[in-house]
Amino acid sequence: MLLQVFTCLCLVTISPAAFAQLPTYQFTRIDINQGLSAGQVNCILKDDQGFLWVGTVSGLNRYDGVHFQVFHHAPRDSSTLSSSFISTLEQGPGGRLWVTTFSGQDVYDPRTETFRRNAGAVQQAMGLDSGTVRHIVRDYRGWYWYLLPQAGLQAYDPATGKVFRLRAGKDSIHLLTNDIANLGTDARHHYWVLHTNGVLEDVEPQRFRVVKRYRFLPSAATAQHCALLIDHAGDCWIYNPTGPAGVYRLQTSTGQVTLYQTGPGPTALNNNIVRGVVEDDQGQIWIGTDHGGINVLDITRTHIRYVQNNPEDPKSLSQNSINALYRDSSGMIWVGTYKRGLNYYHEHLSKFALYQHQPYNPQSLPYDDVNRFVEDAKGNLWIGTNGGGLLYFDRQQHRFTQYRAGMPEAPGSNVIVSLCMDHAQKLWIGSYFGGLDCFDGKHFTHYANDPRVPDNSIWELYEDRQKRLWIGTLGHGLCWTDSLRKDFHLVNNDPLHLLYISTLLEDKAGNLWIGGDKGLEVLQPDGRFKVFTSNPGSLSDNLIICLFEDSRGWIWAGTREGLNLYDPQQQRFRVFRKEDGLPDNAVLNILEDGQHQLWMSTTNGLSALSIQLPDSSFTFRNYGEADGLQGKEFNENAALKTRAGELIFGGGNGFNLFYPDNIAANKQPPRVVFTDFQIFNSSVHAGEIINGRVLLPQAMTQTQSITLRYRENVFSISFAALNFLHPEKNRYRYKLEGFNTQWLSTDALQQKITYTNLDPGDYTFRVMAANNDGIWNEQGATLHIKILPPFWRTPLAFLLYALAVIGALLLARYYLLEKERFKFRLERERQEAQRMHEMDALKLRFFTNISHEFRTPLSLILSPVEKLLRHAGEQAQKTQLELVQRNARRLLNLVNQLLDFRKLEVEPIKLHPAEADIISFLQELTVQFSDLSEKKQVGLQFHSNLQTLTMLYDADKLEKILFNLLSNAFKFTPAGGRVSVTVSLVPGEGGEPDLLQLQVKDTGIGIPAEQQERIFERFFQHDVPASMVNPGSGIGLSITREFVRLHQGRITVESAPDQGATFTVWLPVHTLSQAAPVSGQVHAVISAPEGSTSEASGPAGNKPLLLLVEDNEDFRFYLKDNLRQYFRIAEAGNGQDAWEQLQNLQPDLVISDVSMPLMDGLQLCAHIRKQPRTAHLPVILLTARAAEGMQLEALESGATEYVTKPFNYEVLLSRIRNIIQRQQALSKHLHPHPEVDPVPVSITTQDERFRQAAMQVIEAHLSDPGFSVEELSQALFMSRVSVYKKLLAVTGMPPLEFIRSLRMKRAAQLLKESQLTVAEVAYEVGFNNPKNFSRYFKIAYHMLPSQYQKRQAGTTPEPS
């Protein structure tokens, strides 16, 4: 059995020769993701202000711990770097930097943040020699020593501005040469001068005499580029960064020279290419190599350690190729790598030693998630884990041993939640669902499922001073066993109310404090219990996580809602929370160090509480992951204080073990600088012109005061604390004196403060900063800000204000009086508006009443007309009666529509449905529009997929629905278009009734998409083309939609401009009877569009010709039908059409309506009067507007008569006859016309009739240039051959010559009697080209038309 145990232990035990986790060098990395301009770092320097400067291959970086400011080369700006490739950095007096770039050496001026590319000129201005500066060293006097090629040593004293030169001499006390490779100073202030020939000299500082020379470098070529370091002991370290030469050490006390390079031995380097050498605070020498990382040489122990990159460790060196090493004044070591940016190290970066599992290190902690610690008598640790079993850490042998469940000797579960080492050095183990175990050093005793132990989840184990072992469970309360550990006793649930026991504590008075999920209970020595629960003045939370009694005897309780301190005098608790300084309200463990300082683990790091007596001031100092903690969150009860005073805190990522006394605070207060100034979020640079002047003469880091104008009072100030040790933990306090009196706080994430709309005045901005350990720089930084007042706050402005006040007082009375007048006018306007509203209502009622009165006369008109229609015999009479009936019905519909609209305004309209066949009803209504279809030459069709459908509907309202839809369709459809009515039955869905679908579709002008929703609004009329007149009122579709809604239906429209419109009405089908619809197609072409017919005219003869211009077809038909027996009639639908006809027509009189599309009657009349050829025509205007102003406008436009509608037909006829007679009499008087007769021939009476008929036809078409023999034959109802033979026999001329002869005779008459020009006469007799007319006229009359007109012959010569 012992052999098995030994074998198992060997399997889980790391080799005794293995060492524990040595403290590693943990670096913080900075790369391009944090703002660094490039990954290759060539040089590093920290200036006097505290900024860190980093030279890379792509720019110079200034780092303040949080942000980078990058300086680049700009080709067009001479104040920038000469190249972005930075090689070396040296600081000179005044904070100026000598920057060596790929293109030369520049000098940076911190006052203006600009560069001078001619460094030699700067050096000459200082009194130095020009040339490339190799190195600058500041000594104890404050002198700056410049190393220039072949120039010896030159020291510049900034206090006096003088230059001291140290050159080579012939004796041994002077420098050996003037070509210096490097320079250093030791603690004695001696100068160590390294010449390029390899000679090293020790120069004393008083008389600058060489004390000793050393010659140990192998060659001068090696020394030309060598660098020099003087350590704290005064030893010299020399290396050449350009080659594999290792490092030389000169021990100045003995003169011994040691070469460190690769090879065997405890101090051998791993690479001979050395890029940098620095000394840390412990006196160890850091040697940066190329591809070898950093070699840390401990001279005292003669040991070297290689610090290299570990790909699995993010806190290791980022790369093994080192380009630069630099140690700043705070002891921080900065490492520049070849491609992986910047690294820095400080011994206090990681304050806490960390033990955790590392896959690459078999010597590390086997399992990370630790729950409990206990120390044995040897000072070794037992560790309970959350899934990794039990661990034993032998600290002397640096070895971990792991016990896992399932092994012959192991605890009952791998989840260990409690541990206790009793007085007999037996280890008691409580696990989760694994019961209670006891380990005596060799064997485990299991109490799992033991009836004496109430639960298998043992959450807390505690041995009191009486050696009793208390056992707290997860859900069955508390039990205990005496020192013999034979019997277990359950604490009765009557006095103890806790079932979940989370923590136990025996205080100095012997009270047992028991924490659980229902508060805190105290078992007193007399057996009584005292209970504390969460109440005001009591515990902050009922769930107790940990209990602790400190050296003062104070009882502390940690909960999820804060830290509780018990006051025994008042028996109350004082609560500490985040607002008091804790990193989080959840306190998981409490320990005390030797300085009476409490250490607490939380869910957000560790906190150290310092208590100052007697005033009992409490100060928290918090630590996070950046300080080396295993994580933000720790585990409950995972804490221990060892007998040696070490504190251990564990969590899910391992545990931290440390001596509290070794946790040193950073005592250096950080310097605070201003880094940027912005106006309206735009940075202001030194020397930049803002609003016409230079706002910052110097850089913001050098500025102490700023003067702003009034409109520049929105500004931001950026600042930084130049502390690089955990800069993310820097804290700030700031205030703007003159604006606020209280200090405000911010952190490293918010280093810019913005003020807006400040009043003019003087302000002082103060900012203080604290470092990572809360050490404040109380002096901080100060910036004085003056905001100038605007003009309106100057003394002159106040004088103007006084004058303005006086003027305002003078205006006040006028204003008050005007206000009263305004109130009076407003009241009058209100009364007038009320009166107008009442008047409008009265007008509407009056109009409605008149409309009611219209219905009776209209009914009396319609009834007799319908009776006369049934008995009318003659077609002409029937046509007249149909005209009366149609317009009376239209007027009746308009009256009914107006009455319906009035009803909708004042009261709801009721539906009166009746059951009937709706298909036949809709077809009959559609047929009623047949005459309108024929007159407008618009096709009309009716189609239905049902022959009959009996349903409930209101016939009156359905008739109005279809009437409005068809009326609109015909109104907006031009001639040649089509209107169709389609009826179909749509089956209902989901139990809904069937729907009757009624569609009215036209091919008219369409409706724009943006107006389709508005057409159903009352009084809305959308724009129509100028060729159409919209006489509607805008209420038809509104009424239609209301009537459709009464039928519980809906109406929609689909349309696009110039593509017609489709109105669709859905009506639910409701029936009383069970009559089924009869399917079948019903298709009727009610009328089809016809081609344009020639304009009607009366019978031929000598009747006067009238031109009727009227857009209403019915009215035009009425006039034409009544006047045609007395006159010849020509028709036009609008003024534009009429004017075009007048170009080829000479009527005796024009009768025109006033309101028409395209061109109204007034415009037509004006056109007629302007044209000389038509100026003599009489014009009668017809209109329904009888106002005198309208009549005057018509007469001024040239109208002969103005007749208002309605008019008496006989009166109109008399006026027409009188005007024509007066016109004819005047024409005869002014222009007597001779008879134009052909030469008498002996013909028969029949030939004479034929000749007269032919002349009449030709004279009717004289002005038509396209009139041909073919048209003459058609007009005479003869063939072309017959007309040719007949005319040749009767007149002796063929038809073409006969037509031309009459044209010439008429032309001669017009030339002689009229005032027309030759061109106008040519057009009147049918010639398109006046030149052709002149040629034919000369053939006929042997002279040109113009000559003929001048002769004014008394008789018309016959054409030859």
TrEMBL record:
It is an enzyme of class 2 (transferase). GO terms for molecular function: ATP binding; DNA-binding transcription factor activity; phosphorelay sensor kinase activity; sequence-specific DNA binding. It comes from the Bacteria. The modification 4-aspartylphosphate is found at residue 1153. Residues 849-1071 form the Histidine kinase domain. Keywords: ATP-binding, Kinase, Membrane, Nucleotide-binding, Phosphoprotein, Signal, Transcription, Transcription regulation, Transferase, Transmembrane, Transmembrane helix, Two-component regulatory system. Residues 1105-1220 form the Response regulatory domain. It catalyses: ATP + protein L-histidine = ADP + protein N-phospho-L-histidine. Residues 1-20 form the signal peptide. The keyword Nucleotidyltransferase does not apply. Residues 1252-1351 form the HTH araC/xylS-type domain. InterPro entries: CheY-like_superfamily (IPR011006), HATPase_C_sf (IPR036890), HATPase_dom (IPR003594), His_kinase_dom (IPR005467), HisK_dim/P_dom (IPR003661), HisK_dim/P_sf (IPR036097), Homeodomain-like_sf (IPR009057), HTH_AraC (IPR018060). The chain crosses the membrane at residues 796-816. Its EC number is 2.7.13.3. This is histidine kinase. It comes from Chitinophaga parva.
